[in-house]
Amino acid sequence: xxRKVTIIGAGSVGSTIAFMMAVKGIAAEIVIIDINEKKxxxxxxxxxxxxxxxxxxxxxxxxxxxAKGSDIVVITSGVGRKPGQSRLDLAQTNVNIxxxxxxxxxxxxxxxxxxxxxxxxxxxxxxxxxVTGIPESHILGTGTLLDTARLRSRLADYLSVxxxxxxxxxxxxxxxxxxxxxxxxxxxxxxxxxxxxxxTNKDLIKADLNYEEIEEYMRTSGGKIIARKGxxxxxxxxxxxxxxxxxxxNANAIVAVSTMMHGEYGISDVCLSVPTIVNASGHIGKVLxxxxxxxxAKLRRSADALKEVIAQINL
Length: 315
Description:
Layout: E1 4-8, H1 12-24, E2 29-33, H2 37-48, E3 58-61, E4 72-75, H3 91-108, E5 113-116, H4 121-131, E6 139-141, H5 145-159, E7 166-167, E8 186-187, E9 190-191, H6 195-198, H7 211-229, H8 234-248, E10 253-264, E11 267-279, E12 282-286, H9 293-312
Parallel strand pairs: 1-2, 1-4, 2-3, 4-5, 5-6
Antiparallel strand pairs: 7-8, 8-9, 10-11, 11-12
Helix pairs in contact: 1-2, 1-8, 3-4, 5-7
């Protein structure tokens, strides 16, 4: 791979992704495309002037034609969520934006792997699948990857362990119908409900796990950040860089991202998040944890919520 990434959208999310990619040395070439060309030029110039202290990286503003040869295309364009607004309220406006972008960029970069970040991400990932000829394996949305990071952060706080030692996922929609399958959650290799009994230093445990509070924290974090600072962009940028790193490193990493469902758990023709294997070929398969009947029902309800929105939008 040439490690070329095109980022569509030079707003807070897109520019932060570009900055972080340059600092972490993930990409060797970064193209920033935005309808506001001056903004894209300014962001590219600002990052480029710090590259002397980073790994070599060619970064510039461009047009859709400059996406040619990209290994990865990251799409962040769209109208941002306002305080008090749900992700799904954004649907039709951002669907229209996505359709116009998809036609242009897929023609320029037909072999790229596409990472959809714009919200509502599951709906827009579905739309991108439907309106382009890009193979499904090359299309994924960030989905519940950020929600999963928020979950692991909160669990690590409760249990006084490293976030990297927490193995739990948020599944379903990136939104109000997401849920945690607690039956498969682990700390190291210990089922999470048994961790307190297994650890010898009881002083580490700050409080008994409050599953409802933890899920509420995970589900409402984005809205709280938007209310406090107007937008969320640091954590999602880290998440996108993680996905791109998994692709470039051919990592076969298992991450919670949004892809098309084909009968898994009885769910089809909708994009949502389950653990998914990601490498240089895109996503190459799903890992389907054993879940309780109640958890499967929650996943299906999440799928139904997304299908209800999809039925109302103009594709």
